[in-house]
Design a protein that fits this description.
This protein is an alpha/beta fold. Helices cover 35% and strands 18% of the residues. The strands form seven sheets. A six-stranded mixed beta sheet has the order 13-14-12-11-17-18, sandwiched between helices. It has a two-stranded parallel ribbon with strand order 1-10. The mean pLDDT is 95.
């Protein structure tokens, strides 16, 4: 069978013929910041939070739908279905229009406890429920690979396809995060953590979603700083990359390892695209603080690694406020290939971090 995972908070608009109407604003898109601020000033905002367990922020699918409705009403009128990223791939494979429940958290008309759309919340938001796909358990077979998809992909025609799930939730399953207290630390462009709980635990500065494991939720911290090291390499290491064939990230690790913890007072705030949880500020900016003539490239690398680690710690502290406890932490993603970065995260958070698999 085929299972499809995908990034969160897409807003893929399809017309009646199944054609994509425009580009998909991804989770880093903040065009709906003003609309979300308007909504959060309304008394109904508290009702929505109680229902779905998430604050209304511009990253979520809800804000993007509201933005299209206000600023591109022509597209909204032509929209027949609004899909998530993995749901769109499932559609292209099978023709079935579905959304798995782990992706429900992007919409604030999703009842997080029941795993179902809520008509009253949709009415409050002005979202047409008929534009949203039917919800399915993540492991449910929703169709089979049709002939055209088989020809395009090489998959066997008739192969069963399940609804799939959110990338972080599928990653958590793969990392063995299935019991309350077990936590995944994900080191990709979207960094942060996913803490498994056995009950509804919401916090206005975190993210709550259904796990792909039935009867489990993931209390998540989503940050944007995971790509900071790649940005640093792109902007300040181009010539060295051209001259040396070895893995540049491994070389950066070696440089940073020569600098003591704390980077001799150099501090990095990893807000290169605003920040999501727990500060939820799309206007936040990245900062290197403590620069003087003694600082070297290695100091900046070390400070970058530490800044991202402290963003993870910030989310873990906030999860503690929600009553969630970390019993075990596993690391996945590209950053888990760095022994140094993983050790820094362990030192900053005070947690033992296990790496189930790594390229190193």
């Amino acid at each position: 069978g085929v299972g499809v995972d995908g990034q969160s908070w897409s807003c893929i608009l399809l017309d009646r013929e199944g054609r994509v109407l425009c580009g998909d604003p991804i989770w880093m898109d903040t065009r709906a910041a003003g609309l979300c601020a308007e909504w959060n000033a309304r008394p109904e905002a508290e009702e929505l939070f109680s229902l779905c367990g998430n604050p209304l922020q511009p990253s979520y699918t809800t804000g993007k739908i509201l933005w299209f409705k206000r600023h591109r009403p022509d597209l909204y009128r032509r929209t027949c279905r609004i899909l998530q990223s993995n749901g769109y791939i499932v559609y292209r494979l099978t023709g079935a229009v579905t959304q798995d429940v782990s992706q429900g958290y992007g919409l604030h008309c999703f009842d997080m406890r029941r795993g179902a759309w809520d008509e009253r919340a949709a009415d409050l938001l002005g979202i047409d429920l008929e534009k949203l796909p039917g919800l399915a358990p993540c492991c449910k077979v929703v169709g089979t690979v049709h002939a055209r998809a088989a020809e395009q992909t090489g998959l066997r025609r008739g192969t069963p396809v399940v609804a799939g799930g959110l990338d972080a939730a599928c990653g958590a399953l793969g990392a063995g995060v299935i019991r309350p207290g077990e936590t995944q630390e994900q080191g990709g462009q979207a960094g942060g953590m996913s803490l498994c709980t056995g009950e509804f635990k919401a916090h206005k500065r975190l993210i709550l979603g259904q796990h792909v494991v039935p009867g489990r939720w993931l209390l998540q911290g989503g940050t944007v700083g995971g790509g900071s090291l790649r940005w640093f390499l792109r902007e300040f290491g181009a010539q060295e990359n051209a001259d040396r064939p070895e893995n540049p990230f491994r070389r950066m690790d070696e440089e940073a390892a020569r600098i003591p913890p704390g980077a001799d007072g150099l501090i990095f705030l990893p807000y290169l695209a605003g920040e999501r949880s727990p500060i939820w500020n799309p206007d936040a900016k990245g900062v290197y603080f403590g620069i003087d003539y003694s600082k070297t490239r290695a100091h900046f690398i070390r400070a970058t690694l530490e800044g991202v680690a402290f963003s993870l710690y910030h989310n873990l502290l906030t999860a503690r406020e929600a009553g969630a406890t970390v019993t075990k932490m596993n690391a996945i993603g590209g950053a888990a290939n760095s022994r140094l970065w993983t050790q820094i995260k362990a030192d900053v958070t005070g947690k033992t971090i296990q790496v189930p698999s790594s390229d190193t």
